[in-house]
Design brief:
Blueprint: H1 2-11, E1 14-15, H2 30-41, E2 48-49, H3 52-71, E3 80-84, H4 95-113, H5 125-129, E4 136-148, E5 154-160, E6 163-169, H6 174-181, E7 188-195, E8 199-206, E9 224-228, H7 240-250, H8 257-263, E10 266-272, H9 294-305, E11 313-317, H10 339-342, E12 347-349, E13 354-358, E14 367-371, H11 377-383, H12 385-389, H13 396-406, E15 434-437, E16 444-448, E17 451-455, H14 464-469, E18 477-482, E19 488-492
Parallel strand pairs: 1-2, 6-8, 9-10, 10-11, 11-12, 14-15, 15-17
Antiparallel strand pairs: 3-13, 4-5, 4-7, 5-6, 7-8, 9-18, 13-14, 16-17, 18-19
Helix pairs in contact: 2-3
One fe (ii) ion (FE2) is lined by residues 274, 319-321, 373, 439.
Length: 495
């Protein structure tokens, strides 16, 4: 048995000590190898030496996602594997947790930056501070301050665990200046430049980014996934009729012949948060609700969702209107509130954010999907010129691309509320095939390297608040993705 396992490792070019694998049961190793393939082998070159720590970490993850599937066996039908989700941690938080949180972010992103062109010779900040003037240096640090000097240059303060250093970007280096101008606080970047007196005169900025030319994955069979978000059941502005039209379409009762043919191949529906309008989310909300009890809002949501064809997998994460803490990562919407939803055999409930793999089988490795409701989008649309001028609320895909290039869902402190801990869960460690968001009530689609970015529309007509701040929501749209061709069709269920 052990030999068979060793063979499975060798086949992948993974070197491992035979005494480590004794905890792995070959009968239950599918999930283990799936996680190994997606987390390590897509990033690292073979031969890869698998340490016992990494082995245990993957084993633990594979057991967690395995249990999820075994306790609710029907969930395995469409082959949904939860790659990343979060446990609720209610321990009292201290300053130490903040320090650990940012240190963990720094380490993870440093791992992505190291080895990039011009960052091979990175040194720690305290060593850079001891370099002679005019010497070339490269450092990686978290941006703890950014401002424009009297002379109209940009001055950054970069921090790493050894210290902090000032970095000057001269206004005469136009492209570099613009790049620096659009940096955000608390993101982790690499810089190169020459040393001055305790300051680096930068000539290059390097973001963690994403590979531009990676091949876009395609399925062998014609199968579809649909993206929705921001349903807002319970609001007087919830577009029930339009939503029912969508549900009827999933049952083959709506649309033209071609659409009816396609819908038979629809296997996955993602709902990226704000299932209900919630209670007490903003002052005076009760005047805009027609269901005043949160449980009743979820019952109504479930009543609608359970009409969806039962062989379609429905994958759900919460948003800021849902009945979970607003601080991220947000836990799953609780079973007590939504028992009937949890009980639906084709529903998978996730945390926010979360990453799942769908549609893998013997022949294909499936697609990794990152879901994040998108609470932080407001901050970047309001504070970063490149994002605001690139389309702001009308083009959420610009903000999504911006965040993907930072490899973080909400880098700046204050762009979302978060629970600090040993790990910063909002780092985008592995590039997904799809990156899904919602929250801004405007549909958006774009491609960034191998990743398709999709922002859901909404099922709530314009609220007085949105009218006041000038938002124009886009309602009743569904992005339908053909996983074989990777073409996307935006369907309109509006009147
Ligand atoms: Fe929403
Ligand atoms: Fe939202």
């Amino acid at each position: 048995m052990n030999e068979k396992l060793i063979h499975l490792f060798l086949k992948r070019g993974v070197l491992i000590s035979p005494n480590i694998v004794k905890d792995l049961d070959i009968e239950k190793s599918d999930n283990f190898f799936k996680i190994l393939d997606s987390e390590i082998l897509s990033k690292e070159k073979s031969p890869y030496l698998l340490s016992s720590e990494k082995f245990n970490e993957i084993l633990k993850k594979s057991i967690i996602s395995d249990n999820e599937m075994h306790s609710e066996p029907l969930k395995n039908k469409g082959n949904i594997i939860i790659l990343k989700e979060y446990q609720e941690n209610t321990d009292k938080k201290t300053v130490k947790d903040f320090t650990a949180h940012y240190k963990n972010r720094y380490e993870k992103l440093k791992g992505l930056l190291q080895g990039k062109r011009n960052l091979q010779n990175v040194i720690s900040i305290n060593r850079a501070l001891n370099k002679k003037q005019r010497e070339e240096v490269s450092v990686i640090g978290l941006i703890s301050d950014k401002h424009i000097t009297k002379n109209k240059n940009i001055l950054l303060k970069l921090e790493d665990p050894t210290g902090s250093i000032s970095v000057l970007i001269n206004q005469n280096k136009e492209d570099l200046f613009e790049e620096a101008y659009n940096l955000t606080l608390d993101e982790v970047i690499g810089i190169t430049g020459s040393m001055g007196n305790k300051i680096v005169f930068s000539n290059e900025l390097i973001l963690p980014g994403y590979p531009i030319h990676n091949e876009i994955k395609k399925s062998n069979e014609e199968v579809y996934m649909a993206v929705l978000s921001d349903i807002h059941v319970g609001s007087t502005m919830f577009l029930e009729e339009e939503f029912k039209k969508f549900i009827n379409w999933t049952k083959g009762n709506e649309g033209n012949e071609e659409q009816k043919k396609i819908v038979k191949k629809l296997k996955y529906i993602f709902i990226v948060g704000d299932l209900v309008d919630g209670i007490g989310i903003y002052p005076g909300q009760e005047d805009e609700l027609n269901i005043l009890d949160i449980k009743d809002q979820y019952s109504k949501f479930t009543e609608l969702i359970k009409e969806i064809r039962p062989d379609i997998n429905i994958i759900i994460c919460p948003g800021n209107h849902d009945a979970v803490r607003i601080a991220e990562p947000q836990p799953k919407i609780s079973k007590e509130l939504t028992k009937s939803l949890w009980d639906l055999p084709n529903v998978t409930m996730l945390t926010n954010p979360a990453t799942v793999n769908i549609h893998s089988n013997e022949k294909e490795e499936g697609f990794d999907i990152l879901l994040y409701h998108g609470y932080s989008l407001d901050y970047y649309i309001n504070n970063i010129d490149k994002v605001r001028n690139g389309g702001g609320y009308d083009k959420p895909e610009v903000a999504m691309k911006y965040l993907l290039s930072k490899r973080h869902l909400a880098p700046s402190h204050g762009s979302s509320l978060f629970i600090p801990g040993k790990e910063d869960h909002l780092v985008i460690e592995k590039i997904p095939d799809f990156f899904l968001m919602g929250h801004v009530h405007k549909s958006g689609i774009d491609q960034a390297g191998k990743t398709t970015l999709i922002c859901g529309s909404c099922w709530q007509s314009i609220t007085p608040f949105q009218e006041k701040v000038g938002h124009k929501p886009e309602t009743s749209k569904v992005q339908l993705v053909n996983l074989q061709t990777r073409k996307i069709k935006v369907m309109n269920f509006g009147k």
